[in-house]
Amino acid sequence: MSDPGDRLAEEAARLDAEDRLAAKRTEFVLDDTVYLDGNSLGALPAAVQGRLAEVVAREWGELRIRSWTESGWWTAPERIGDLIAPLVGAERGQLVVGDSTSVNVFKAVVAAVRLAREEDAERNELLVDEGTFPTDGYVAESAARLTGVRVRPLPAHRIAAAAGPRTAAALVNHADYRTGELHDLAVTTAAVRAAGGRTVWDLCHTVGVLPVRLDADGVDFAVGCTYKFLNGGPGAPAFLYVRRALQPRFDSPLPGWNSHAEPFAMAPEYVPAQGPARGRVGTPEILSLLALEAALGVWEGVDVEEVRAKSLALTDFFLRCLAVHVPPARADVVTPLPHGRRAGQVSLGWRPAESAERVLQLLGERGVLADFRPPGVLRFGFAPLYTSFCDTERAARVLGEVAGGSVE
Amino acid sequence: MSDPGDRLAEEAARLDAEDRLAAKRTEFVLDDTVYLDGNSLGALPAAVQGRLAEVVAREWGELRIRSWTESGWWTAPERIGDLIAPLVGAERGQLVVGDSTSVNVFKAVVAAVRLAREEDAERNELLVDEGTFPTDGYVAESAARLTGVRVRPLPAHRIAAAAGPRTAAALVNHADYRTGELHDLAVTTAAVRAAGGRTVWDLCHTVGVLPVRLDADGVDFAVGCTYKFLNGGPGAPAFLYVRRALQPRFDSPLPGWNSHAEPFAMAPEYVPAQGPARGRVGTPEILSLLALEAALGVWEGVDVEEVRAKSLALTDFFLRCLAVHVPPARADVVTPLPHGRRAGQVSLGWRPAESAERVLQLLGERGVLADFRPPGVLRFGFAPLYTSFCDTERAARVLGEVAGGSVE
Fold it and tell me: Could you please report the per-residue DSSP string of A102-125?
């Protein structure tokens, strides 16, 4: 076995044999494809099917309305928030699950701007990282328009330096969805805070792949998605974190009856609930929520530091495999190489950019699922709980075959 | 059989035998209880369980990300909106399903106020029916605060007369959730429109029990719930109607990436989609959406006029049964008696009010499920697709037994 490709295949098998998270694969429904799109829609945890069948047949079908209390439906948003809390470095009682990420960005940004302007009405800037996932940018514009501030787009790494006396809040993605670049949460949060502004972090692309330290780093608000690395299912509800010290002053623009201090008093005046329930709005989507709760069972006993170590090992290994299999003229690695600046994916700027979608299709035909973001970026997401080193090696090898073929 | 109670039981059996909707009962999972809480959480349509199992196992588990296109996930919000359209008198292409009712009230009210103020900036009043379901009132206050208008609460029947040159918009519940009173949609809409304002109707308690004529009556915006009489499941996503002529001017305060004209272009500038998709926000909750879609299958071939006729027959019959079984000193009927002012429930003001919750509990122990709204109101919801006249007779009889007992 002197061929470098063969040696990588051998190494992959050895790395899998040594992988302490390898057993987690059995908790997912997988097949013989290499699924590297868990950063878009996580694979199905095996526990979901049975649990959802029980929810429908027993809790909805038989107990019906009684399930709001007897099956714990009413408390699901905070209970599931507490399951996610350790993954984002938060003590219990600060997360609530419900609504989409976009809607939660709206709640958090409006509330952050209100807090800052309540303290100093001259603060009129909302800093937004310019590479943001689009929805955050659109929602930020809407929140700015409704609260009387203006959006100032900046590269994420410049937000710390740009924060100043005009800064009301900063909305930053913890990782760039396109490149997989990891942004410095601790430094940016500290700088915005020191300038007197508030931070809102979007954790969609980091929760479930690396340790996040919301409490320790003094983050004010955070939102995140549960259908990517948390495997909650298509369109699973998002989470909202509001730092405990700010909860009493959290002034949500979406005060629904579920966030009332006494929802069943049906009072005409709004009195907000204390604690994370203040982030609720309307009746929570129970089927999606309870599917997510079942999906989160795979995190039991998992150490996020170990997940991060495997994630970096996978992406490092993928980069080595790419170097062997894929001609450098075909692909630029756009994901930063230093570990401290890399999240859980590897993105390639394909050449020519126009053929990236076709490459993606050919990969799919050969059993390797990845995705594409314009212009010409191929994304390979590595979900440490179910992606193996053999998957990783195979993906690079197949990409090399495709690149060496007739694709232009 | 000369006892009036016996005669009613006999009549119930005859009415069920003549009921042209009776066969629909077999499409639901029912048991030997009388379920009169379908106005809070509709019973489980039998088709849901199998469909949801397929969605999880096949569409999520096997096809995964490909299901966004191959399983039609992406188009579900408008496709399901079109299934609801005939139930609210709307032509296709004007409804979108997603988010909670509260969130949709927010979109609609902000958009309605913006439209009105764009035409005349002096319009600074948001009329809200004072008996509104709480969430609508809370969200209206938030929308008013963010758009610079003030909420003016009024009895629903006075909104038509109160609409004037200051009216930006009116948010009205089609039926009062507490009393079951039906409000005059046609007259109120016409009056607000004549005054130059915009209307937002909340159809939560009428969709699925009576014909609604959004297009014919010139309604601007409407929202509604799908987990009550549409049986979509706990927390099933709500719908938003935007009249076709207004769609190009619908200026949503929640512009997420799902409502972008080209969502997958991932463009930094927001360009809203045309048509009902403009009412979307973030990634839709697919499991809840597809459960709802399966649940809506029970409406196939159902004539809403026939549903309304049965609904009125059920509540009329219930009132007659109450007159025989329940001492008038114990309960005031707070639901209007004229058909034109009655929606799909019968509400009783219990005496003494403090014992209403206990009565509800005793009913439950005897197999009759209803619900309670403070202060002292017992609600009996009649879902015409699965409630029988025998159910109705039994509910009144059991209530009479409970009322004649020692409950104080």
Answer: HHHHHHHHHHHHHHHHHH-TT--E
C-alpha span between B314 and B297 (Å, rounded): 23
> Residue written as tokens 């519940």?
B173
- Mean pLDDT to the nearest integer, A60-72: 96
Chain pair A-B, CB pairs under 8 angstroms:
251
Question: Which residue from B60, B130, B373 is facing A233, i.e. has the nearest CB?
Answer: B60
Using a CB-CB cut-off of 8 Å, the residues of chain B touching A151 are none
Residue B406 clears pLDDT 80, i.e. is over it: no
Task: Scan for tokens 């990409």, then name that residue.
Answer: A399
* Record: contact B138-A258, CB cut-off 8 A: no
The single-letter code of the amino acid at A295 is A
CB A152 within 8 A of CB A168: no
Task: Give the closest-approach CA distance of B335 to chain A in angstroms.
Answer: 18
Confidence grade of residue B374 (pLDDT, cut at 50, 70, 90): confident
Choose from A37, A252, A266 for mutation: most chain B CBs within 10 A: A266
Domains of chain B: 4-44+303-404 (3.90.1150.10), 74-299 (3.40.640.10)
- Residue B373: per-residue pLDDT: 86
Question: H or E segment at B291?
Answer: helix B286-295
Q: Is B14 exposed, middle or buried (0-12, 13-18, 19+ CB in 10 A)?
A: exposed
The CA radius of gyration of chain A, in Å to the nearest whole number, is 22
The Cβ of residue A271 has, within 10 Å, a number of other Cβ atoms equal to: 12
Question: If pLDDT is split at 50, 70 and 90, which confidence band does A405 have?
Answer: low
Note the pLDDT of residue B1.
52
SS3 B199: strand
pLDDT at A1: 52
Q: Hey, what amino acid is at B261? A: A
Please give the distance of CA B347 from its chain centroid, rounded to a whole number: 16
DSSP characters for A292-321?
Answer: HHHHGGGGTT--HHHHHHHHHHHHHHHHHH
The pTM of the full predicted model, rounded to 2 decimals, is 0.97
Which of A53, A252, A257 lies at the smallest CB-CB distance from B135? Answer: A257
- The answer on pLDDT for A113 being more than 60 is yes
The span from the CA of B405 to the CA of B408, in Å, is 9
Cis amide prior to A234 (ω within 30 degrees): no
A228 is catalytic: yes
Specify the pLDDT at position B408: 43
Dist CA A212 CA A214 (whole Å): 6
Q: How confident is the model at residue B407 (pLDDT cuts 50, 70, 90)?
A: very low
The number of C-alpha atoms within 13 Å of A314 and in the hemisphere containing its C-beta is: 32
Convert the pLDDT of each residue in B269-286 to its tens digit.
999 999 999 999 999 999
Q: Return the minimum-mean-pLDDT range out of A384-388, B333-337, B375-379.
A: B375-379
Query: What is the pLDDT at residue A406?
Result: 47
Count of CB atoms situated within 10 Å of the CB of A119: 13
Residue A383 has pLDDT above 50, yes or no: yes
Give the percent of chain A with pLDDT over 70: 99
Inform me whether the C-beta atom of residue B178 falls under 8 Å from chain A C-beta atoms.
yes
Contact A367, A397 (CB under 8 A): no
Q: What is the pLDDT of residue B405?
A: 65
| Chain B touched by A75 (CB under 8 Å) | no
Q: Which residues have CB under 8 Å from B5's CB, separation 6+? A: B324, B325, B397
Contact B135, A264 (CB under 8 A): no
The SS3 of residue A402 is: helix
Q: Tell me the CA end-to-end span of chain B in Å, nearest whole number.
A: 32
**A353 and chain B: CB distance < 8 Å anywhere?**
no
Where on the phi/psi map is residue B82: left (φ > 0), alpha (ψ -120 to 50), or beta?
alpha
* Per-residue 3-state assignment (H helix, E strand, C coil) for B21-59: CHHHHHHECCCCCEECCCCCCCCCECHHHHHHHHHHHHH
